[in-house]
Here is the input.
Amino acid sequence: MFRACYLAKRSFGIINKDAQSRRVFVETKNYRIDHPMWKGKDPSQIEIKHYKPKGVADWIAYGMLNSIIRVFDVLSGFRPGRMNEKGWNRHFLFMESISGVPRVTAAFIRHWKSIFYSKHDSGAYHHLIEEEENERMHLFFWTQLGHAGVLAKSAIILYQFFFVFFYGTMYALSPKVGHRFLGYLEENIIRSYTLLLDDLDAGKLPLWKDIQPPKVMLEYYELPETARIRDLLIEIRADEALHREVHHHLAETPMKEQIEDDPK
Here is the structure.
């Protein structure tokens, strides 16, 4: 299947040209950014850890993130060990909904700063866009697993719209706080996935025991058709562990050092 896309020619995959319409067609499987992170490795062997706040910026990011998470946990009835499939789906719809938005917002702000300083962004922009697509695939999984309808998807989009302004203001004022905020968000998401896997292994979520993940997720992670939800959850948690490390690292690096001089 091909879908018409008015895009500049890039090495995303199979690209054909329709001589009559002069349109560029891109194969839908190949236009996605590659996902090479855990090939040949055991994604279940990730390290679960916490970065202790050190300065004012760290405590601001940590405080804001925990305030948001605690309010949501109360409103959504987040009770690890006592939740059914519906409760876990509701929890991750929220977590993954806010997870992708900061990447696009931060990338756009970095785009502006790169233009302002007339310097390259040293690859951080591209990585943020790659992370956003990765997080969007996670959200695809939860919307499909929970059979989210038009109302639920509209609420997700509206929620993301408002989160753009919240995170955009934060990142524009302090990229360090913005990246540290994402680092702590990933720590919370990793914790949630670990608790979910514990419930799944304990037999508390029987409806999900033998369900096969959506086809789009099997293709993205290159999992066999025999894979089950547990296999996919381990892959997703490993993604979040990488994102955690990246954003804690970027929080340690001053913005000016992340933007390279234009090579002569």
The first helix runs from residue 56 to 76. The first strand starts at residue 2 and ends at 4. The beta strands are 2-4, 15-17, 24-27. The chain has a mean pLDDT of 79.
